[in-house]
Amino acid sequence: xxxxxxxxxxxxxxxxxxxxxxxxxxxxxxxxxxxxxxxxxxxxxxxxxxxxxxxxxxxxxxxxxxxxxxxxxxxxxxxxxxxxxxxxxxxxxxxxxxxxxxxxxxxxxxxxxxxxxxxxxxxxxxxxxxxxxxxxxxxxxxxxxxxxxxxxxxxxxxxxxxxxxxxxxxxxxxxxxxxxxxxxxxxxxxxxxxxxxxxxxxxxxxxxxxxxxxxxxxxxxxxxxxxxxxxxxxxxxxxxxxxxxxxxxxxxxxxxxxxxxxxxxxxxxxxxxxxxxxxxxxxxxxxxxxxxxxxxxxxxxxxxxxxxxxxxxxxxxxxxxxxxxxxxxxxxxxxxxxxxxxxxxxxxxxxxxxxxxxxxxxxxxxxxxxxxxxxxxxxxxxxxxxxxxxxxxxxxxxxxxxxxxxxxxxxxxxxxxxxxxxxxxxxxxxxxxxxxxxxxxxxxxxxxxxxxxxxxxxxxxxxxxxxxxxxxxxxxxxxxxxxxxxxxxxxxxxxxxxxxxxxxxxxxxxxxxxxxxxxxxxxxxxxxxxxxxxxxxxxxxxxxxxxxxxxxxxxxxxxxxxxxxxxxxxxxxxxxxxxxxxxxxxxxxxxxxxxxxxxxxxxxxxxxxxxxxxxxxxxxxxxxxxxxxxxxxxxxxxxxxxxxxxxxxxxxxxxxxxxxxxxxxxxxxxxxxxxxxxxxxxxxxxxxxxxxxxxxxxxxxxxxxxxxxxxxxxxxxxxxxxxxxxxxxxxxxxxxxxxxxxxxxxxxxxxxx
Length: 753
Fold this sequence. Notes:
The protein is α+β, with helices and mostly antiparallel strands. It is built from 19 helices and 36 strands.
């Protein structure tokens, strides 16, 4: 089939097949939508560019497969130009009702008539993808035999579907590499964070619609021995704010040099700027408190004397939430030459992550009356004064009044001696943070440094009444795996647990003999659940036989590494409002299999940080810290029986796939509880070895049906993972930038999608 094209965003029609680019997110939509399946996609799109260093023929474009409603993509597939031609193999996912074509904003004008879809048999698609990967030398090799060795290994693990997935992953990596996706932050900034004149006017209109023109902000800037150019840049970044209801309070901490006083004198004419010159050096906490005392704004924000605010920073805060007490934005770094890099796209309010590191950082604005209630900054906490303040402020307000504003609104100057450049620049940070955390958490918690710099392991106390944990292990045959799993459980240090093995029609004599010998009728029991394998029903049956007030779902192909794994999980499940806890799972080669599930990844859900080394720090050190996640795998998941009973356990309609994701979503949205992942519960997971491959038509049909069920049930929630920024991609597990963030920007034209 060949589909026509229609402009939907940032494109002005010149004629039926030619458009002029008018903004940063030019988008076309296909007038016909292909059925799910494999295709060779071609397009005749061509363009002209006013940018000298980018050839129009190489400008990146991509197909975005969308459900009928909502902004969550099912998949995004770049179509890079190779030898002047745009063609690639694409799989159209189930549930596709709309297809968008994203066009490079670097183009000034484009011409296109159709996008062609030629249907391919699955085997032909796999052959074409593998040939392209091998010929292109992905990973530095052109050894097609090596690729096929990986495919054969994948076939052994996951059957035909597994081998095709292996090829498709390598092929997709090649396409993204050709398109330059996810690595060019300067281009991303131009596309997604640069406001044109029309955008600014629309943003001002939105601010004008707010009562009183929106809340007022005081920006407090402590100063000590600044470099003149950076101080002036910092001040000017406040003066250039689109939102005009601001006050800047600058407090010089008795700088011995003349620069600060000379520069500040130049701004005496601006009535919006208040300058206070201290007579003696009091360090940063005392200096900042002097600024807070002079604040008149409804909110107080903080910035360093060498950093910069984005022009829309205060406008974005003003438009975020009228009920908020604490607002925080994303940030990046800026070097001495003005180059932006290292964007930090943060999650929604995540208290455990704040315990582990000051992830909120810049830009943060706090309602002034709440800041006063918390007592401002504490002297003696210099080096960690911001972390200490946020720990105390977030403790005196409600979680729904702590609001993340997912825009990069703060630019942290990376210069010599700055913590933006290296955490070693202020080696007193750790001691102050540990003291602040102990004050916030209480003496029952253990606080120590974690693996990554300026991160902390905060360990909750063990519940006073030691709860019994019922470990539920479904199995079928494979006595070798089951014996390995159970033998490793003997290393578990938690003192109160029972093991319930739910046997699903084992027929192997060795397995049956082992099961009979295992059952002691007390804390080691075997229950039978005959019939077709249904992971949800098997675990629900085991739970009915369990005596514990805590239930631990555990696959029979897991193996304990850390003896305190269960103690760690029990500690976290005992915290108020926690409904499920997940573990860190490694493949046999010690690469990461599970470190939390990202909702919407790959269309429905997937594992973040997948295949990183076991000791990797992860995205901004998250892999070293226990924190809230969107979901966790049931291969090792601890939950409270009360939560399980409230929700009715796992859903049997999801027999194999996504029943754990569905359970976690119900934990969050039906039970109102949170899901925690901890890196300190460590196991090996030899994935799905006893269940067999998903390669026959019945299993494939069942899997597809379960995907459709989960998508239909949760489509409107999959773009709302509280632990994953809408600025990060759902096309890869690497926490890289999304080419098009899943955001409704406040400067967008009305009616655009």
